[in-house]
């Protein structure tokens, strides 16, 4: 098969699966839906693997497959750019997606929306592949919006739950803010580069590096660098999709969706689209230090402060969600430090171990009969051994234990930040270092509370699993009741093989992928010609290469460095707090009530948004509704024109009197008027 | 003078053979009908249809595509005439089928006169279509009008119908007077009544402009009456409403084709030199028609009356194509503009026939079914007919992908190409207002409860024709190109 049709096969196979499962979801049996979608994704995975081998052999591709439309000088095409970066993303997306598909068979077993769910996740895989394989901004934006749409659909998958509807609306609106920036950025690219094709834009970028534009009516004071404003606008899009402060608020709430998609979309793939996009745009970002500073500062704030929030969460999925936010912050920091390859590397390792952690959490949730509160767990390792081992591996990878996948990528980020000279790097270094301790602490807090210690399940509990702020949890009409938990005396049980198999399969890369990946991806020429770094201005990566002496040496050397000891002390402290002396956290909580309240309220971001943006929008909406719609449109335009038409119609009816002499008179008047108009002119 | 010196030349009868056949048949049927005992007049009905069919065959067979004059240039046979005549026969055939049940239910109407008068009206239209002389136009027009006056009054026990006939007759006589007066002025200015000769004299610039324009105003008034455009429209609502629906159907369909033909013959062929003047007059009439037609239709509760106002607005819209033919002495866009008008009028006749046909279909003995309320819940009584009616209404409203949309679209294209942007915008706004009352019918059919839930029975032939009519409205909307090019070719070969 020639490569071009293989490229096409990769996105189209999951699309075909999605269409089979989606369009016929009411008539086909469940096994058809999952077989069709899993087959589609498996085909995409194997095709991606073949493409990977082909790319390794040096065959990259950049070209159109379909011309959509031309408008003036602009051409809009569907095309593929297949290189090392693309193929890495394709492998990550298809492999995690495949695991999630298999896992879903077990997780959604009792759900009435089974076929619909499979259709959505396959549609997601299609959209994400379109996004990463694109060779132009247009298609990128299509994929960008399509993954956003599927994310919206899946967060609100249980659409009878008010909390889910709230969460998907929130995700949708917050992403609109990001996408607004993104499309403005794309608009600037189209306006100043005259094309949306990556290769053409990148080729032209250096010549436009010093161009300035005015943001406001050609005024002097509003002049900014074109490259900076374009990059910052594009990055605002990434902030929405990759949940960076302050557009992060939707991600914790997105946990309202079923766990498999939390793993697939809200941890492993979609949220990393922003990271991927910035790495893809490295030739543009490299031209603007201002944009890179913006990126690194946003990233470090996210990395550290979102980690803090993980400490006080009691919902198992929310702990993992905040950990995702924090790790996305790490990737963003790496982008800001011009260590794009490190960001992609962390993206890849994170995809595996975070999907593992999420699916592990999902497995625990099944075992606990859909009780998600870690305070009701404890001692689960006896009952769910496979889940326990794989979750431990995931947690070790996450906190950066030497030799595990997360170690290589995270340590490289910290090193790269230390070597970066970009403004803001100092603060970023502090944030990522402190983040190591925080990550270790909350990860193992969750791990200890779930798998070790006293068995707290099976007791009558009135504190329900979910986060308290949504309120309404007892909607009986939800066919699949997610909140009953274990009955008194009932024991948790290990989950079926369709659930544990993906855990095992994801645990393997979570251990080894860092070790085998670091040398070629970061210091080899894997990303040569794909990621562009201005080594003179941003020397972090090249210096990092000097310090690198092999994966084993890096791991043994790490034992003497600060991150390792910080992580270790984080683990030790959580062991002490939550296993040894469970009374201490309560005591601390009582002492530092204000800080606790601040964290409890997530730094008041949600409150602020609700009052200022949502409230403001409602106020504006009401104003437009009362003034514009009811007053102007309904009152004057609609009702007014109705009155006018009625009046005119009644006038015409008056003249249509039925009297023949009126009619004749009208005709004579008509002739008379025409005569007057014309004969007087001649 | 000897016999040999009498240069009596037998005129070439070939171009007029269809008319001669029609005349013979009409007279023949008049006689045959005297001996028909059958209350249903089935024989007369069949013979009438055969006469129309025969005329169609003759018109088709004798059509050469060339322009042929006869009767000392008073009469012309060309592709435009042949096409319009064929469409006229077709329309009248369909009209007779639609009306059959309605007529049988009303003993006053089920007489031979209905058929023979219809044939004479058709003959009148044929003469109008083929006229190359002002008097021939007048002859055809009077033949048509007189037949129609009688047809409107056919149900002579109905006060409403006789009143309508009276109004139609008096106003029609007035309009004929205006038209004749206009013709006499033109004759005074040019010294001829032959249309092609008038055009020649005008080219040579020998005519007195004031007399010409004076005559033109009267001529336009006469034509406007026939088309039913404001302010010569007053008869339309009363006649449409008062006449039996079968007659309304006849008045509302085929004569529009003949009216279009005399506009083309007299104004475009004969007085093209005065185009700037009559175009401006027609613009005024057109805008007034669209405004008053659409606004007044909204206030109607009677469907026939509503369709009467809709007819006024449609004729106004059709005029838009005629007013954009010659711009500043430049006739480059003329073919486009005139063929868009022709397309418009043909598709209007098609849709209008279907709409009135639907009223006829719902009517029974003693029940006219001409109120808007009678269409309530039609979907529950007959989903198929409701769908057909919906297509007619969508087409009249100009909803995309029905033929009415393309008709409006091509006319607007001609208007914009001629540079009358404001006119196009006004036309669109009035069409939008018009969409309201068409869509109201759709709303009544689909969302309201029927007053009388009994299902609808219709004879097979009517069902078939109605379906064909509805599907034609839909299909011509998707493939308008064939008819569009036929119009263009006919005009190109005839002007």
Q: Top keywords for this entry?
A:
A: mainly alpha; two-stranded antiparallel ribbon; two-stranded antiparallel sheet; 4 strands; 69% helix; B: 495 residues; mainly alpha; 20 helices; 1% strand; globular
Distance between the termini of chain A: 81 Å
* Lateral arrangement of strands in the main beta sheet of chain B: 1-2
- What's the rounded overall pLDDT mean of chain A? 85
- The count of DSSP E runs of length 2 or more, i.e. the number of strands of chain B, is 2
- Structural class by sheet pairing and helices of chain B: mainly alpha
Q: Helix count of chain A?
A: 26
Proportion in helices of chain A: 55-70%
The largest sheet of chain B, given as strand count, sense and whether it forms a barrel, is: 2 strands, antiparallel
Oligomerization? heterodimer
Average pLDDT across residues of chain B? 91
Number of helices of chain B: 20
Q: Specify the biggest β-sheet of chain A.
A: 2 strands, antiparallel
Helix and strand string of chain B, N-terminal first? HHEEHHHHHHHHHHHHHHHHHH
Strand content of chain A: under 5%
Unreliable segments of chain B (pLDDT under 50, ≥5 consecutive)?
Answer: none
Shape of chain A: globular
